[in-house]
Amino acid sequence: MQMLVSHQLLALTFDSSEDKDDGVHLDAKKSNLSNDDILDEDIVESDVELDNIDVVEPDNDPPQKMGDRSIEVTEENRDASQILKSKAMDSISEDKLHEAIDHLTEAVMLNPSSSILYATRGDAYTSSVYVKLNKPIAAIRDADAALQINPDSAKGYKIRGMARAMLGQWEAAAKDLHVASNLDYDEEIGMVLKKVEPNAHRIEEHRRKYERLHKEREQRKIEHARKQRRGEAKYEREMKMEQPSESKASDPEAASALKEGQVIGIHSAGELEKMLKAASKSSRLAVLYFTATWCGPCRFISPLFTTLAGKYQKVVFLKVDIDEATDAAARWNISSVPSFFFIKNEEEIDKVVGADKSSLERKIAQYAS
Length: 369
Fold this sequence. Notes:
By secondary structure, the chain is of the alpha/beta class. The chain contains 15 helices and 7 strands. Helix 4 packs parallel to helix 7 and helix 6 runs antiparallel to helix 7.
């Protein structure tokens, strides 16, 4: 028999015909939701199909006596505990389980530092009376005690793994049983793993699937926000482009300073800022050229800069001598000349360093269009 058990794992289905941008399937009642509503929707819970036929309810009995591990165990008590263990094994073979519990508990009290006694009291196949009595919580307590005394106790891991399987704790059970198998494999561990592993794998696959869906939804949110930012930036640019005539009218001096077809000499940082603002208000590309009289490559490329100013008359060509306008050179962190900066809306969009004629003309043509 198969049972459906909810693990609070989250589900999300995808619609191939509608809402392709968001990849979310909505029912008819939610078909009028906006993209923002879709992205904010909680992912629907889903069940994972597990074989829980042998799962039992947790036992709620008071904790069994565990003994005081701080006391010193005498040889007499150690021997007595072994005799009690033997009596318990006899009781188990005769199916006198409660009697076996009493013997093992008395043995634990006499020798509380014995890992094997706790494991024996919790053993599922040969001597675990707690598992046979459907008391997995008690078995886990004994297994934990055994592992605290001996972290390499194969029987401790085996007991705890089998008890966790009885509680439907499939992943934790599989982990314990694999450790037990590596320490000391036996056929019983293999038999239980055949039941435990399929359930553990289903849960793991289910969780990975919905972790991926969560990540995909978060990625869609990020992409949605990115598109919104792009749309807002585009709107702002379009608004700026619709206002050039008003801007010119509001600052006729700056507009008249833009000499079409000519290279404008800049003598200070303040003058440069004024020209860049005028170019921005006119929605024009500005090309800022830093040069020096002692610069050989500058003498090589300056004639081309003048020629390009005549060719691209709607582009603002600005020329700055770094020895004259030292404040402008410092503000732009000029470390070598010639240097060319391409500016739109008072923001640097590209640059060319060096006397590279082809790059200079290509970028002017690219950004002037």
